[in-house]
């Protein structure tokens, strides 16, 4: 079993920054792939970024590339998502996910485990 708890959501103006954190616990193999995805009201879930726990290899969706950075502190079992130059279209609930493997794209995990989410709101 894997438990995930997100922190750090909030409201910012366009151009601002936020950092999300995801505290993970449980089976380390089951969380080899760690990811952030988001979902806005009325929209489909969108993969944002992944980091591989062993190599720290990362991948990003085109929509966030160059603005968001995913990182980890393996010792603290925490994954971060640094979000810079935020835009109103980044407004969504952000979820941390973990899985033993990638999903359909390099910037998605298989999402075997998902946190409860944290709201990010960006105003124009």
Q: Helix and strand string, N-terminal first?
A: EEEEEEEEEEE
| Backbone structural class | mainly beta
Tally of individual helices: 0
What's the helical proportion of residues? Answer: under 10%
User: Roughly how many Å is the radius of gyration?
Assistant: 13 Å
Shape: globular
Mean pLDDT: 96
Overview of the molecule:
With 124 residues, the protein is an all-beta fold. The chain contains no helices and eleven strands. Strands 2, 4, 5, 6, 9, 10 and 11 form a seven-stranded mixed sheet that branches. A four-stranded antiparallel sheet has the order 1-3-8-7, with no helix packed on it. β7 (68-73) and β8 form a beta hairpin. The radius of gyration is 13 Å and the shape is globular.
How would the blueprint of this fold be written?
Layout: E1 2-7, E2 10-13, E3 18-26, E4 33-39, E5 46-52, E6 58-60, E7 68-73, E8 78-83, E9 92-99, E10 113-114, E11 118-123
Parallel strand pairs: 2-11
Antiparallel strand pairs: 1-3, 3-8, 4-5, 4-9, 5-6, 7-8, 9-10, 9-11
Short synopsis of the structure:
With 124 residues, this protein is mainly beta. Helices cover 0% and strands 52% of the residues.
Keywords:
124 residues; mainly beta; 7-stranded mixed sheet; 4-stranded antiparallel sheet; 11 strands
């Amino acid at each position: 079993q894997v438990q995930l708890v997100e922190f750090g959501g909030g409201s910012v103006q366009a151009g601002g920054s936020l950092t999300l954190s995801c505290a993970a616990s449980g089976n380390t193999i089951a969380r080899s792939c760690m990811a952030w995805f988001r979902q806005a009201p009325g929209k489909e879930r969108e993969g944002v970024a992944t980091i591989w726990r062993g190599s720290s290899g990362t991948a990003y969706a085109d929509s966030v590339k160059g603005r968001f950075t995913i990182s980890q502190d393996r010792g603290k079992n925490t994954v971060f998502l640094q979000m810079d130059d935020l835009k109103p279209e980044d407004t969504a609930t952000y979820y941390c996910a973990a899985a033993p493997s990638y999903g359909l794209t390099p910037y998605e995990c298989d999402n075997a485990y998902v946190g409860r989410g944290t709201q990010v709101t960006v105003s124009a």
